[in-house]
């Protein structure tokens, strides 16, 4: 993997995404404007954690390091479920944790495909490289 020229930008985005998921997991949930099907939120969990895992994997040069970040994301999901149980407006859900785990695994798998190069491609475009 080539060195990213805008590394600070990409890591700032990564930590911003992480903070967004953390905050969104702990704030009170407003009622949705339309009634969503039962269990629809599990897809949101899968998408959020696949995005985090896949994005962090784009910034890491070694798959072994990505595995460590994936474990950290799994732990974050578990901690968030516990923290939700400590609030009066949210409740913990083991199925959410399972959905988070599926998302983390999907992100890991996506980084084994050519999609791993998306951030590097965007970085090259920002840097003006014509490769």
Search tags:
mainly alpha; 5 helices; 69% helix; 0% strand
Brief digest:
The protein has five helices and no strands. By secondary structure, the protein is mostly helical. The radius of gyration is 16 Å and the shape is elongated.
How would you portray this structure in words?
With 131 residues, the chain is mainly α. The protein is 69% helix and 0% strand. The chain has five helices and no strands. Helix 2 (40-59) packs antiparallel against helix 3, helix 2 (40-59) packs parallel to helix 4 (94-110) and helix 3 runs antiparallel to helix 4 (94-110). It is elongated, with a radius of gyration of 16 Å.
Shape: elongated
Oligomer: single chain
Structural class: mainly alpha
- Please tell me how large the radius of gyration is: 16 Å
Separation, N- and C-terminal Cα atoms: 14 Å
- The secondary-structure element order is HHHHH
What profile does the largest beta sheet have? none
Could you name the ranges where pLDDT drops below 50 across 5 or more consecutive residues? Answer: none
Mean pLDDT: 93
Number of DSSP helices?
5
